[in-house]
């Protein structure tokens, strides 16, 4: 029996492993950018299901609204007008949001035990009750996804609707997607399906169509089918080879044991030094000298009084 | 501070045990993690149809309360009906936002009247609304109804009041509207089909 | 402890207060910082009310510490310029650590080790303050690459400083009669003559 | 829609033109994506803007707004010239062989019979077929006669060469030809194209003719009546199909029956005119049953008061002097001829063109009654909202009543979707405050009026006092009662005409379909095409079996479709004249030697053997589909390109006749003539449209949608932006002859300048969804700009093509 409703694979700021024995289904969401019409139904469903509402903003000269991810907007559509070599136009629309990395930078960076959880099905979830609001998850994320709420100072992002997945349903965005550009299922099935889409796209002249499942973060549980998999940057700067920043790896990797060892050594070294060498005390001669001087001065004072 | 050698040992021991406690007793291994409670668990599910465009997607409307006498149903969530052969559970951004339509602050709650020349709404009862509206209708109909045209042909029409019918109300409402409106002799009668 | 009117004043009240403000801040920052740094120390956040309070307070305490450290550093900077005899002292520090200070060159108010510690802390504070500000999401927004670099620097500087402070504290404990200087402001003449003879002579006029 | 939403997955080519299905109907559009996945279908989008439909298209071509007839005329010419038509289909199932009256002529932009003073074709007698002595239409099966429809059609559209098309539409010639190739690829029996269109075709002064041209392309290709084909009008509102079916329009009665005109004083003549005899031997001409439908309707409305003696209350029906469509009504209101007006779930101030005229018109009313779930702009037309609605409140003497109504979740009933499915829905919550369903409000208004007439008497009270009102709770008729009423029931025991000993339905029982209707007053039916929706077996609209045994998306047991639960109209045309499916992979209904059957309810006489030669278009007296529209269209039998009423080029390149620059029969009121702008003053072609994030003027009240698209904007191309010094995100003023709006400029590569008739035409895109009320940021009503001019047949306002200027503010 487990306490939690989904098996946990990893939790933030925890040095011992979570129970690992049970093997559960690895899930994934596949976003077929070639079928996405940018209708934002996923955004609406996300807001509705998760009980979040962003502010009514302004138009800043693009269709992207809200114009960025926020603590109240866990997914946004990124619209890019790209001119092709033959004078044509492509309107590339990418649904942005948490990629649910197999090797999540946020979880690695998070200092609060249990604030970030990776379930054994691959979902990376934030537990705001444990979140301390430090923002290290933002520092750790290779995709610039988590956002701190101005209301409560906690970090929020897509949960892949862990509450729905836990009861056997698809995430709200995947269920709602009118064109089926968002699919949900086992990661294996998603990859199989992606292959059929890539074949179709290649037949339609997109020679570089491919799957975006970056190895640098151990693969992701949100994947893209891209018409131009060779240029992910066209899709609003999707990183080509994302990985946890080496800075973050150093910070949350080797630094920890080394620093602990160094500080431990310093403390223990001091202790043993004290034990072995004893204190550095004032020499007996000087003490005696000062004692004598004091005696002399006291005697002098008495005479002065008389 | 004059710490004796013995005193120093005491401090060290305390420090050691303290950090051991930190490392073992208070160590954060038991931080609980559970997904959010599935919010539809015991809601009432009602089959409905999206009121927006004419794809007419199937909806599942979830409301709190189980229909017992002492509960008042309140819709808390709407999603696509997976059985529906057209939308198959999907919705568009409008359909996915329907919850906020039902609970929009712009929803009208009471009959109101804006009297001629004034600048505000005044709440009235349904009875008053019906009485005043039908009085205005009857006076206008009685005064302006055309039984025969200039050529003496029976035309039985009422042109001085018009009616613009809905586009999203059920067919049953449309039918009764047509029955009532045409029966009064109205011809200035139209719906949203043209726009 | 027996008070002796002829004890030597080493720090005045203002200096002592300044030191302890910095010291307390440092302890609080080290406790909270370590809690964020390594899961094993996370329960230390409870000392601040809750983990979130620890996160909220940490940077503000840092600002307080940075301010008072700056004042303290300005106060003591001149006394910590490194001279020839300090280098000599540092060359022989091994003997000192080994418990034999007979061959150590005579020292002024601060010995070479203390001076190195001082400048180490100054550099550490500079790094930790600047990097800390860059990481402070509530008030500062900089590109994530800068935040990442700052995070590494902050952690490194913190470990460096905590190491220095362990040495600082141990040295104070190890060298008996030292702690009172920061508690009451005075040291015994014998202590002064033993550890800081040049300074002792300056104060007392004792030529021996 | 001739076909259904899920049937689109059977298409090989999808042409989206005059619509933007991905944005306006995303869940229906899913079946386009399915077609791409399942059939490797190609999606072709032709639109002034590179829309979100274009974003997932295989091919996109730009077009100048309002020039679709030229484009499609060019397609017809391409198909005929390159012999890309389905010969057997057009020969057997269309009027290709029919001979046309010798007097029929087309010259310099006008057909024979035009009256320039009336701006109308008042003599359409030449727009007819040649008739033989037997009364039937004369045909030439060789199609060589120069008066046969095929030859006339060919001649008419031979003028629409690719360079002419490109010159008018601004579509580069190579792109036009590429689109033609995609379309032509479905001329064989093994490939099918569907056309999806919406307001982008209807909201023009020549909208009906644009749609006809599209239908003609489909007929040439043999794409009507088959799976994956059809002309699919994507209707805008959830029940606008239903309300149109139910005849809530100035000239209609339920089931597309029509009101008598004031010259139709004789009941018999009224019926006869609507029940035409077949024009060719052995044709069905189903409207011959008109009287059965009409009498049954009158029995539903007037019960026992409707008798054979009083011609089933024929005199009680109002007689039309002219159509009182929305433009006519607001024109009359503007001229002070209306005292009262009701808006039931409708926001005309935002939805109709030329807002400033509407404001003046509404202020002339004595009383205005609003029934709506939401606070609409119309309900507060009298309130000053600064520049957004600058009115003098105190001078407006209109009494306005605002009655709160329920919304979908708070009521039960049926909605008819674009595919003619009647789907039942159930109440899920109580309405807010004292809101009431429309059924209850209408019922109460009737009862209050009846009471007043009973008490006081008054003008012509007969219909009011005699309206049949059998509802159990008279003030609030239930949806169930009303649905059963429009399905129809037997008033007496109905005897089988073939076997007098057999009773089909006992008195009081629900009818199974319109075939059981009688003209003798023994049946009642409120809407004949809905007969079968609530039978003795219960509510067919509530059926929820989504089984799809043939895997083609027809789901016969899901809800109920009119007519007779038929999912694809004209489905007889899916089989060849011998009754065998054109394409075995695409079989729909076929002749099994004894009768017609298959995966759909045959749109045909079920036992009529193919040898009899009955045509598949059984509602037409010809039995076939018409390229030559006879006298049925206001501006002529063949669609012809006319410029939008406000044209950016000032001339019609198809003629040099000043009377035929724009639609010579368009609905224009004299008083509006000064309100039309010219390209000298307003040089840019503008078009209004919907965005996928919003639904008309409703969702600006919906928080989620307001977040998704918060603020009013207009779209312009980079070329125009550069010319006018407008940067992305700047505020601009867009003005037409009728007013101005201010909004954020969205500068995009998706709208490109077009070369038209030797000049550069820039287009300005104007989304419509904002107004002076709501959760979204307040904005200007976009229809402030649109002209008060209507299509000649449907009177739909020309909101898609007009002229504007744009300036940075």
UniProtKB/TrEMBL annotation, chain A:
[4Fe-4S] cluster 3 binds at residues 98, 101, 106, 141. Residues 27-55, 89-121, 122-151 form the 4Fe-4S ferredoxin-type domain. [4Fe-4S] cluster 1 binds at residues 36, 39, 42, 177. InterPro entries: 4Fe4S_Fe-S-bd, 4Fe4S_Fe_S_CS, FDH_Electron_Transfer_Unit, Formate_DH_bsu_Proteobacteria, Formate_DH_C_sf, Formate_DH_Fe-S_su, Formate_DH_TM. [4Fe-4S] cluster 4 binds at residues 110, 131, 134, 137. Residues 283-306 are annotated as: Disordered. One of its GO terms (biological process) is cellular respiration. Its cofactor is [4Fe-4S] cluster. Binds 4 [4Fe-4S] clusters per subunit. The keyword Transmembrane helix does not apply. SUPFAM superfamilies: 4Fe-4S ferredoxins (SSF54862). It is found in: Cell membrane. One of its GO terms (cellular component) is plasma membrane. Keywords: 4Fe-4S, Cell membrane, Electron transport, Iron, Iron-sulfur, Membrane, Metal-binding, Repeat, Transmembrane, Transport. It holds the Pfam family Form-deh_trans. GO terms for molecular function: 4 iron, 4 sulfur cluster binding; metal ion binding. Its main location: membrane. [4Fe-4S] cluster 2 binds at residues 46, 158, 161, 173. Residues 293-306 have a biased composition (Basic and acidic residues). This is Formate dehydrogenase subunit beta. The gene is fdxH.
UniProtKB/TrEMBL annotation, chain C:
The keyword Heme applies. It is found in: Cell membrane. One of its GO terms (cellular component) is formate dehydrogenase complex. It is a multi-pass membrane protein. One of its GO terms (biological process) is anaerobic respiration. Residues 10-185 form the Cytochrome b561 bacterial/Ni-hydrogenase domain. It comes from the Bacteria. Its cofactor is heme. GO terms for molecular function: electron transfer activity; formate dehydrogenase (NAD+) activity; formate dehydrogenase (quinone) activity; metal ion binding. Keywords: Cell membrane, Electron transport, Heme, Iron, Membrane, Metal-binding, Transmembrane, Transmembrane helix, Transport. The chain crosses the membrane at residues 20-37, 57-77, 116-139, 151-173. Its main location: membrane. Belongs to the formate dehydrogenase gamma subunit family. This is Formate dehydrogenase subunit gamma. It comes from Pseudothauera nasutitermitis.
């Amino acid at each position: 029996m487990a306490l939690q409703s989904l098996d946990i694979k990893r939790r933030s700021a925890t040095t011992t492993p979570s129970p690992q024995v049970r093997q559960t289904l690895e899930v994934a969401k596949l976003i077929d950018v070639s079928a996405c019409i940018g209708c934002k139904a996923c955004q609406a469903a996300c807001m509705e299901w998760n009980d979040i509402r962003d502010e009514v903003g302004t138009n800043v000269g693009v269709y992207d609204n809200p114009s960025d991810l926020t603590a109240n907007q866990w997914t946004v559509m990124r619209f890019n007008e790209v001119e092709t070599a033959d004078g044509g136009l492509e309107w590339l629309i990418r649904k942005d949001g948490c990629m649910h990395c197999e090797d999540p930078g946020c979880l690695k960076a998070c200092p609060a035990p249990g604030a970030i959880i990776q379930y054994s099905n691959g979902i990376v979830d934030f537990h705001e009750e444990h979140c301390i609001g430090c923002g290290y998850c933002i520092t750790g994320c290779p995709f610039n996804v988590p956002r701190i709420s101005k209301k409560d100072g906690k970090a929020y992002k897509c949960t892949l609707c862990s509450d729905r997945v836990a009861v056997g349903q698809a995430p709200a965005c995947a269920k709602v997607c009118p064109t089926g550009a968002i699919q949900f299922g086992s990661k294996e099935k998603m990859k199989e399906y992606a292959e059929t889409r890539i074949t179709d796209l290649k037949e339609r002249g997109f020679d570089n169509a491919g799957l975006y499942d970056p190895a640098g973060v151990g693969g992701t549980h949100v994947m893209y089918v891209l018409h131009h998999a060779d240029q992910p940057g066209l899709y609003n700067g999707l990183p080509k080879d994302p990985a946890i920043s080496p800075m973050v790896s150093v910070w949350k990797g080797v630094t920890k044991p080394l620093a602990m060892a160094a500080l431990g050594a310093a403390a223990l070294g001091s202790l043993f030094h004290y034990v072995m060498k004893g204190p550095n005390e004032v020499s007996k001669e000087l003490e005696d000298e000062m004692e004598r001087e004091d005696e002399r001065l006291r005697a002098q004072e008495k005479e002065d009084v008389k | 501070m004059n710490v004796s050698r013995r005193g120093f040992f005491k401090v060290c021991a305390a420090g050691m045990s303290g950090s051991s406690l930190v490392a073992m007793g208070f160590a954060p291994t038991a931080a609980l993690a559970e997904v959010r409670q599935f919010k539809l668990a015991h809601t009432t599910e009602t089959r409905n149809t999206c009121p927006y465009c004419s794809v007419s997607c199937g909806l599942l409307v979830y409301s709190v309360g189980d229909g017992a006498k002492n509960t008042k149903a309140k819709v808390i969530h709407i999603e696509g009906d997976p059985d529906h052969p057209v939308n198959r559970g999907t919705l568009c951004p409008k359909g996915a936002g329907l919850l906020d339509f039902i609970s929009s602050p712009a929803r009208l709650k009471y009959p109101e009247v804006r009297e001629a020349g004034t600048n505000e709404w005044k709440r009235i009862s349904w009875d008053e609304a019906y009485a005043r509206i039908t009085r205005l209708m009857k006076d206008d109909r009685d005064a302006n109804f055309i039984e025969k045209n200039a050529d003496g042909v029976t035309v039985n029409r009422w042109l001085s009041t018009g009616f613009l019918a809905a586009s999203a109300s059920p067919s049953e409402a449309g039918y009764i509207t047509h029955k009532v409106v045409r029966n009064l002799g109205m011809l200035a009668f139209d719906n949203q089909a043209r726009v | 402890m027996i008070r002796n009117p002829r004890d030597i004043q080493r720090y005045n009240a203002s200096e002592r207060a300044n030191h302890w403000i910095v010291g307390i801040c440092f302890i609080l920052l080290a406790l909270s910082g370590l809690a964020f740094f390594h899961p094993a120390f996370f329960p230390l956040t409870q000392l601040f009310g809750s983990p979130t309070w620890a996160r909220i307070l940490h940077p503000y305490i840092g600002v307080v510490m940075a301010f008072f450290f700056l004042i303290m550093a300005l106060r003591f900077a001149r006394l910590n310029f490194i001279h020839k005899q300090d280098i000599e002292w540092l060359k022989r520090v091994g003997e000192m650590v080994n418990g034999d200070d007979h061959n150590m060159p005579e020292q002024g108010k601060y010995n070479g080790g203390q001076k190195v510690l001082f400048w180490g802390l100054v550099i550490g504070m500079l790094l930790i303050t600047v990097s800390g500000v860059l990481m402070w999401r509530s008030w500062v927004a900089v590109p994530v690459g800068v935040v990442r670099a700052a995070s590494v620097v902050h952690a490194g500087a913190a470990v460096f400083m905590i190491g220095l402070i362990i040495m600082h504290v141990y040295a104070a404990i190890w060298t008996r009669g030292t702690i009172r200087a920061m508690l009451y402001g005075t040291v015994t003449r014998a202590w002064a003559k033993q550890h800081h003879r040049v300074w002792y002579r300056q104060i007392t006029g004792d030529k021996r | 829609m001739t076909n259904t939403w899920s049937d689109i997955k059977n298409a090989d080519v999808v042409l989206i033109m005059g619509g933007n299905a991905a944005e306006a109907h995303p869940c229906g559009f899913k079946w386009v994506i399915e077609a791409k996945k399942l059939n490797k279908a190609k999606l072709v989008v032709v639109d002034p803007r590179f829309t979100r439909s274009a974003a997932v298209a295989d091919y996109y071509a730009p077009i100048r707004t309002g020039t679709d007839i030229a484009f499609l005329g060019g397609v017809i010419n391409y198909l005929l010239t390159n012999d890309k038509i389905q010969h057997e289909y057009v020969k057997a199932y269309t009027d290709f062989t029919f001979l046309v009256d010798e007097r029929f002529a087309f010259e310099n932009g006008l057909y024979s019979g035009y009256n320039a003073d009336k701006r109308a074709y008042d003599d359409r007698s030449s727009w007819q077929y040649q008739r033989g002595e037997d009364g039937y239409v004369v045909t030439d099966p060789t199609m060589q006669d120069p008066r046969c429809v095929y030859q006339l059609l060919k001649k008419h559209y031979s003028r629409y060469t690719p360079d002419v098309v490109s010159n008018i539409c601004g579509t580069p010639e190579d792109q036009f030809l590429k689109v033609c190739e995609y379309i032509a690829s479905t001329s064989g029996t093994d490939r099918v194209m569907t056309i999806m269109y919406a307001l982008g075709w209807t909201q023009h002064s020549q909208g009906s003719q644009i749609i006809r041209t599209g239908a003609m392309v489909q007929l040439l290709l043999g794409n009507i009546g088959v799976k994956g084909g059809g002309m699919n009008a994507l209707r805008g509102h959830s029940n606008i199909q239903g309300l149109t079916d139910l005849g809530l329009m100035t000239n209609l009665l339920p089931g597309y029956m029509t009101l008598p005109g004031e010259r139709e004083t004789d009941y018999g003549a009224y019926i006869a005119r609507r029940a035409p005899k077949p024009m060719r031997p052995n044709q069905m001409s189903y409207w011959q049953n008109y009287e059965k439908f009409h009498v049954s309707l009158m029995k539903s409305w007037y019960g026992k008061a409707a008798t054979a003696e009083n011609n089933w209350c024929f005199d009680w029906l109002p007689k039309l002097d002219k159509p009182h469509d929305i433009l006519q009504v607001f024109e009359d209101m503007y001229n002070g001829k209306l005292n009262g007006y009701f808006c039931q779930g409708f926001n005309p101030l935002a939805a109709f063109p030329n807002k400033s005229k509407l404001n003046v018109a509404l202020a002339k009313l004595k009383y205005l009654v609003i029934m709506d779930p939401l606070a609409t702009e119309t309900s507060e037309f009298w309130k000053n909202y600064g520049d957004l609605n600058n009115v003098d409140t105190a001078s407006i003497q209109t009494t306005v009543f605002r009655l709160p109504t329920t919304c979908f979740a708070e009521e039960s009933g049926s909605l008819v979707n674009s595919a003619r499915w009647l789907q039942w829905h159930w109440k899920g919550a109580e309405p807010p405050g004292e809101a009431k369903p429309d059924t209850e409000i209408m019922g109460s208004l009737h009862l209050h009026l009846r009471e007043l007439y009973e008490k006081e008497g008054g003008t012509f009270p007969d219909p009011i006092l005699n309206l049949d009102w059998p509802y159990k709770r008279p003030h609030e008729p239930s949806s169930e009662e009303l649905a059963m009423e429009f399905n129809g029931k037997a008033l007496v025991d109905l005897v089988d005409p073939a076997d007098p000993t057999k009773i089909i339905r006992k008195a009081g029982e629900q009818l199974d379909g319109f075939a059981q209707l009688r003209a003798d007053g023994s049946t009642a039916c409120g809407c004949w095409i809905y007969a079968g929706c609530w039978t003795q077996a219960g509510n067919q609209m509530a059926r929820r079996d989504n089984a799809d045994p043939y895997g083609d998306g027809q789901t016969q047991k899901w809800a109920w479709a009119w007519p007779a639960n038929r999912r694809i109209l004209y489905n007889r045309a899916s089989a060849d004249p011998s009754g065998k499916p054109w394409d075995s992979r695409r079989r729909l209904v076929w002749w099994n030697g004894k009768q017609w059957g298959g995966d759909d309810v045959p749109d045909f006489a079920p036992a009529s053997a193919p040898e009899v030669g009955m045509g598949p278009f059984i509602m037409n007296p010809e039995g076939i589909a018409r390229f030559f529209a006879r006298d049925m269209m206001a501006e002529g039998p063949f669609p012809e390109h006319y410029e939008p009423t406000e044209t950016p080029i000032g001339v019609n390149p198809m003629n040099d006749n000043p009377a035929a620059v724009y639609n010579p029969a368009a609905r224009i009121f004299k008083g509006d003539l000064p309100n039309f702008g010219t390209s000298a003053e307003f040089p840019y072609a503008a078009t209004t449209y919907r965005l996928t994030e919003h639904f008309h003027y409703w969702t600006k009240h919906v928080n989620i949608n307001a977040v998704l698209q918060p603020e009013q904007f207009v779209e312009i191309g980079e070329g125009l932006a550069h010319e006018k010094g407008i940067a992305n995100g700047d505020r601009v003023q867009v003005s037409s002859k009728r007013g101005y709006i201010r909004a954020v400029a969205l500068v995009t590569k998706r709208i490109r300048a077009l070369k038209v008739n030797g000049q550069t035409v820039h287009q300005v895109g104007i989304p419509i969804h904002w107004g002076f009320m709501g959760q979204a940021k307040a904005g200007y009503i976009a229809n402030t700009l649109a002209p008060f001019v209507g299509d000649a047949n449907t009177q739909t306002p020309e909101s898609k093509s007009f002229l504007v200027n744009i300036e940075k503010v």
